[in-house]
Amino acid sequence: MIAQHQGILHRVCRAFTARDQDREDLLQDILYQLWRAWPTFSGRSKPSTWMYRVAVNTAITQRRRKERMPEHLSLTDLPVEPGAADPVLGRSDDLAVLERALRSLSPADRALILLLLEGLSYQEMGGILGISENALGVRLTRAKARLIEKVSELS
Amino acid sequence: MKPFDDLQRAWQADADPETGEMTADEIFALVEERRRRVQRDVSRRLTRELRLLVILVVMMSFLLWGKPGWPVGLAVLVGFLAVFFCLFQCGHWAFRHASLTGSVVDSLKNMIAVLVRTMRVYQALYIGSILGGVSVALWIVTGSSTVTAFAWWGIAVGLLVFLVWSYRAGKRYLDREFGGYLAELRRTLDELER
User: Fold this and answer.
1) How many angstroms away from the CA of A105 is the closest CA of chain B?
2) How many CB atoms lie within 10 A of CB B102?
């Protein structure tokens, strides 16, 4: 199941971490949490929804611990010149800017925007985050506005 | 200004070129590596705390040796240290094993509750160990001599001042150690619930 949906994990890691080392560390943490939690998976929700939940929870609750550790900056932390492709990953300018804008948001906004970018329904997002669909609409509008503002600043 | 739909398309079109697909064996190897690292961290911590406790017991035995009622004193001390050790381990275990399978809001509430509980236990242990240390020192000093009622009053007031001081010092220490993380969890929860 994890192998089948692993794209989810990589994208959550990308949204929450900037450095390669942190990304690998978070990926390993999420995989470990999934492995530990697997016996409790009842099958009531879709496997992908359950994986989003564990992955986002791990990313949000473990972020601080990683940030406290001083580490060297990697090449992927370098700012991207407007109009240029990502120097290391060869990504499009749009995507590189989007990732940076996403990581500059608060963890709550980041989780909201990540799930929206992934194309999840409001019902699935509400289930993962634990908030009602009505409340979700309001928070998403605010988070989207903040993201677009950041993207404009970085572009 | 870029519309959100364009950003969503860019995000979804990307196929993780830098990571590639992991096989089931590679995934299991990563899980196994993390599991071993967690176990190593736990046993390292356990060894460090046990070593400290053994050193403390040996030191205190030398200090208490020959004082009136020293076997009882030593037994109380070892009991206190055992409770101290168990509570530390319980707090550590609860923190490491906090469930992350619920919704983000539930998990954040759970983590905050675990963290607050752990901080309270640390605070109680901090005060307990300082007062315990002072009591043992007093016992050693006063064990073989007579102390007047007036001196006992002085000691009681001193202990009270010490209690307040150790409470505040403990709180400052815990705020420094856990305060930032706790505040961040609360902020995230607040943002999601507001």
Assistant:
1) 11
2) 16
Helices B70-96, B24-64: crossing angle, 10 deg rounding:
160
Contacts of A43 (CB under 8 A, 6+ apart): none
Helix, strand, or coil (residue A86): coil
**Contact at 8 Å (CB) between A147 and A105?**
yes
Low-confidence ranges of chain A (pLDDT < 50): 65-90
Measure CA A131 to chain center: 18
User: For residue A25, how far is the Cα from the chain centroid?
Assistant: 14
Q: What is the pLDDT of residues B96-108, one digit of tens each?
A: 777 788 889 998 9
For the domain covering A6-154, report its CATH number. 1.20.140.160
Distance CA B123, CA B137 (A): 21
Residue corresponding to tokens 């009991």: B79
CA-wise closest residue to A89 among A7, A18, A2: A18
Query: What residues does each domain of chain A span?
Result: 6-154
Residue B88 has pLDDT above 60, yes or no: yes
Number of neighbouring beta carbons within 10 Å of residue B119: 19
| Residues B22, B19: Cα–Cα separation, whole Å | 8
CA nearest B77: which of B61, B66, B91, B90? Answer: B61
| DSSP characters over B129-158 | HHHHHHHHHHHHHHTTS---HHHHHHHHHH
DSSP-based helix, strand, coil % in chain B, nearest 5: 85, 0, 15
pLDDT digits 0-9 by tens, B131-156: 777 777 777 666 655 667 777 778 78
The answer to whether the CB atoms of A89 and B30 lie below 8 A apart is no
Query: Which one of A2, A9, A10 makes the best mutation probe of the B interface by having the most chain B beta carbons within 10 Å?
Result: A10
Q: What is the pLDDT of residue A80?
A: 42
> ipTM of the assembly?
0.77
List all residues of chain B from 137 to 166 with a beta carbon under 8 Å from chain A.
Answer: none
